Amino acid sequence: MTVRQIDVYRSAGVLQREHGDGAALEAAMRADAMLDKGDMDGAALWRRILAAVEELQRFEPGTGETLQ
User: Fold this and answer.
1) Pick from 1, 10, 2, 17: which is nearest to 49 by CA?
2) Is 59 helix (H, G, I), strand (E, B) or coil?
3) Number of Cβ within a 10 Å radius of residue 43
4) Could you give the CA distance from residue 32 to residue 53 in angstroms, rounded to a whole number?
5) Where are the domains of the chain?
6) Are 56 and 12 in contact (CB under 8 A)?
7) Taking the model in full, what pTM does it have?
8) Which of 1, 32, 45, 54 is most buried by its number of CB atoms within 10 A?
9) What are the distances in angstroms from CA 29 to CA 42, 52, 60?
10) How buried is 46 (Cβ within 10 angstroms: 0-12 exposed, 13-18 middle, 19+ buried)?
11) Is the pLDDT of residue 67 over 70?
């Protein structure tokens, strides 16, 4: 399964709109649910979405980063 990074960020945006500050927790729970089912690809995808949610929720750019 190949999922483009833009689609990962779109999914992260949907989670943020639906779950607000709980978006990261929701993504983590979905990743765990995939693991429980033995779906390693699904779990990996949800971990990517979780990382995207966390990135989108950052308020300040990191050292050497710029906002675009």
Assistant:
1) 10
2) coil
3) 18
4) 16
5) 5-57
6) yes
7) 0.84
8) 45
9) 12, 15, 26
10) buried
11) no
Specify whether the CB–CB gap between 57 and 23 falls below 8 A.
yes
Cβ neighbors of 24 (< 8 A, separation 6 or more) are 50, 53, 54, 57
| Residue 66, CA distances (Å) to 15, 22, 58, 59 in order | 24, 26, 12, 12
Average pLDDT over residues 30-37: 98
Percent of the chain with pLDDT over 90: 76
Q: Which one, of 28, 31, 68, 18, lies nearest residue 10 by Cα? A: 18
**Rounded CA gap, 27 and 47, in Å?**
7
Q: What is the pLDDT of residues 40-63, one digit of tens each?
A: 999 999 999 999 999 998 865 667
For residue 31 the two structure tokens come to: 């990743």
Give the pLDDT confidence score for residue 64 in this predicted structure: 76
